[in-house]
Input
Amino acid sequence: MNLEQIKHKRNHTIDIARGYAILLVVFGHICHIPLVRTYIWGFHIPVFFFISGILFNREKYSDFLSFLKRKILTLLVPYVFFYLLTFLYWIAVERASRGADIEPWTQIVGMLYGTYDLKWMYFNGALWFIPCLFTMELLFWVVTKIKQQVKLIFVLLIFFVLGIYLKDNTPWLPFGLCASFIGIIFMGLGYISKSFFKKEVDLSKKQCFVLLLILLSLFVSQVILLPYTGADLAALYIKNVWTYIPISCIGIILCLLLSNLLKLRVVEWIGLKSLFIFALQEPIYRVVIFVGTKCVCVDVETFRNSVVCCLGATVVTILIITILIFIYNMKRFLVK
Output
């Protein structure tokens, strides 16, 4: 298969959805407005798990060992790299003003522990997602030996219930294992529905109008459900277990509909670089917020409670990471 065929086969809508999702992640981390934060955090991480399910393909690998090697290369190696990079930045720049009482050795242990407990991953909590996704992918390899969809959904629900029980009754499990048990339901839903995303569809004006009405209706339904919304999978917090899956699924559908209605190349590129953005966002947006507060002459909480300031900080954070990615790619090109 040549390059043109690969480009033609790729579903760009999925990358765009991932782009919108990572924008929500960054904005949701920067913003401290309670209602906005609650709304975004209700579904932004399940979107990534759902997309991972769509892209999951056992047939690409001859056996589990080849699958494991691939996931180590694409998830664990970047995790260790970004962990050490941002850890060294924290030691050199931030520790004196943020976390002076934190012993550096605890953060190295945190890399091996691979979970969100801030005692062990204080300097860059967003990195929890990568080991969690790694664990989930390995679990899903085993689960997808089940070929019947009804049985598969049943097993995924068992994992979900187990995760809900463990989060309140056990210590934090390594490598986001408990969060993986909970989130794997969304990966399974993406996997089951992957046939709907085999090819992109050019929408007519009438179809776009219908999708827009559906999108607005779903958005209104999420706003109505906002009192029942409240989740932070990283911290193993779910306000309402019964509404968590439906609320997250509505958010996933919203993200996918938006990706079909508003196909922006820049958002697609952001989606392709979502792992970089996930890993680097925290230390960078802290710098952006610090500089931003000086520029507009307000304190940090006032800045983070302003939609305009948070949107601006999100854009600047993404731009800085884009520049860093460009520099990284240039260095790789020059080395070659």
The two ends are 24 Å apart (CA to CA).
